[in-house]
Amino acid sequence: MGVSPKYIKVGNNPMKYRIDARYVWYDKGTKIVLMYFIEGIPFTFDELPDESIFDLELINVADKERRYEPKDLYHSSFYLIDEQCHPMLFEVELENPEMLPQD
Q1: Which among 14, 33, 89, 98 could disulfide-bond with 26, CB atoms 3.0 to 4.6 Å apart, if both were Cys?
Q2: The predicted structure's pLDDT at residue 13
Q3: 31 by DSSP, 3-state: which?
């Protein structure tokens, strides 16, 4: 009978994190932004033109998402910084790096 290893190496790829972006209401529902998430945790956003608040299709999309406040982004960003997983500040293995904000 063989001894089973404590850890089994499945592959040589480290864990990769996924970036997603969604249109959400921000700042007491006063504007819609394109919020970026790493594994579901928000870390930054792109502002949209002011007239986007009148785009019915965009409003319908944002209405289906959670609303975010500046303090939510503050807390989640600091959590990611503490864990050294903030993709804008640390080198993180990403499944889809093309989804990162360009600026």
Answers
A1: 33
A2: 52
A3: strand
